[in-house]
Amino acid sequence: MKQKKITSVPGIFGGTNYYDENGRQIGYSTPGIFGGAEHYDENGNSVGYSVPGLFDNAVHYDGQGEKTGESIPALPFERHRLDRNGDLAGVSSPILPMGNIFDGDESDVFDIGPGSDR
């Protein structure tokens, strides 16, 4: 799987925009109806969703409802992204003045799975 840095930047109405290392938008997320987030690729196709967990974690699912992993709190302001097997897939760290940088296996970020050309 390809390792990349992905920048997430808050968007309007509580959403988040995602950009690759070249500054190209590769997806976005919108707030879910009951919390969590709905995830979309750069073409607006739904690719999955995330729901809040019990201990400040978030559980991630692909478009077919299969669990793809979770995000858990780590060091102050950092989150670890675990894959479906519980292995570390990447780390999300804050950047100033706002947003985050994700460094890891980007295929799990949008739940697009192996075989992606990104």
**Alpha carbon gap, first and last residue:** 10 Å
SS elements, strand count: 10
- The Cα radius of gyration reads 13 Å
- Classification by helices and strands: mainly beta
Residues in β-strands, percent: over 45%
The succession of helices and strands, N to C, reads: EEEEEEEEEE
The total domain count is: 1
Number of helices: 0
Described by the principal axes of the CA atoms, the overall outline is globular
Regions with pLDDT < 50 over 5+ consecutive residues?
110-118
Largest sheet: 10 strands, antiparallel, barrel
Task: Give a structural overview.
This protein has 118 residues and is mainly beta. A 10-stranded antiparallel barrel has the order 1-2-3-4-5-6-7-8-9-10. Helices cover 0% and strands 52% of the residues. The chain is built from no helices and 10 strands. Residues 110-118 have low confidence and may be disordered. It has one domain (3-108). A hairpin with a 5-residue loop joins strand 5 and strand 6 (58-62). The N and C termini lie close together (10 Å). The chain is globular, with a radius of gyration of 13 Å.
Brief rundown of the structure:
With 118 residues, the protein is mostly beta strands. The protein has strands at residues 3-10, 16-19, 25-31, 37-41, 46-52, 58-62, 67-73, 79-83, 88-94, 100-105.
